[in-house]
Amino acid sequence: MTKAAIELKDITKEFNGNQVLKGINGEIDEGQVLAIIGPSGSGKSTLLRAVNQLAAPSSGSVVFEGQDLTKAGKQSLNHLGEKIGMVFQSFNLFPNHTVLDNVTLGPRRVKKLSDEQANQEAMHYLKQVGMAEKANAYPDSLSGGQKQRVAIARALAMQPKVLFFDEPTSALDPENVGEVLKVIQQLASEKMTMVIVTHEMHFAKQVADKIWFMDDGQIVEENDAESLFSHPKEEKTKHFIEQVL
Ligand code: ADP
Ligand code: MG
């Protein structure tokens, strides 16, 4: 039996009367990888942002560690929010800070770690993603793949319970994709709870325990990777997979 790390109940999101999420229900399971696939504009990024409260849902609830995040006060929301890490397509590193500082900033400011403790922990995570030797480099001197690995180290340094990735390889040159996927694969083997929005279908098939196919603000189909790709139940899923595989 899997245990839900996060439960989503009837989540909707509207922008100016336009309903972008139309009632999302599901569970993000502890120690597992959920991949979200679907056409551009189907609401994948909006869903991640609604769940981690970067842009709160219009209605519905997000239950994390026994608390409904949509009803949590600001202070407990900040606290819970720190436990959901996020890695973006565009890295979002601070260009005027070194790699090391990018990783230590959060732990120093938010977790109030001493510089020494923060540096020590940051080096551990930079090693984990193979970027320790670039600790004193600035983001501009790195390849996209290296930047993304630093962004992953930065997220890990906050010791999140759950890690969200929004198309982590979409902005990369093809030759940089593999090194980032390898880091994510490694985290999966260590049973990190992750949600990955991706267009890398072969990767999704390999790494995901569960897949959601989203279209038009809804989860059209949920299944394990093998079933979803080999025996899609819904016409829409079949059509999408034929186009992207
Ligand atoms: P995906 O990540 O699957 O490509 P998004 O979640 O980015 O899809 O977008 C889903 C829909 O919501 C799109 O039609 C997009 O234009 C709309 N949308 C997303 N963010 C906003 C926003 N801040 N304001 C207005 N519309 C938005
Ligand atoms: Mg998106």
From TrEMBL:
The keyword Membrane applies. One of its GO terms (molecular function) is hydrolase activity. It is found in: Cell membrane. It holds the Pfam family ABC_tran. Its EC number is 3.6.3.21. It is a peripheral membrane protein. Residues 6-241 form the ABC transporter domain. InterPro entries: AAA+_ATPase, ABC_ATPase_HisP-typ, ABC_transporter-like_ATP-bd, ABC_transporter-like_CS, MetN_ABC_transporter-like, P-loop_NTPase. SMART domains: AAA. Keywords: Amino-acid transport, ATP-binding, Cell membrane, Hydrolase, Membrane, Nucleotide-binding, Transport. Belongs to the ABC transporter superfamily. This is ATPase component (GlnQ). The lineage of its organism: Bacteria, Bacillati, Bacillota, Bacilli, Lactobacillales.
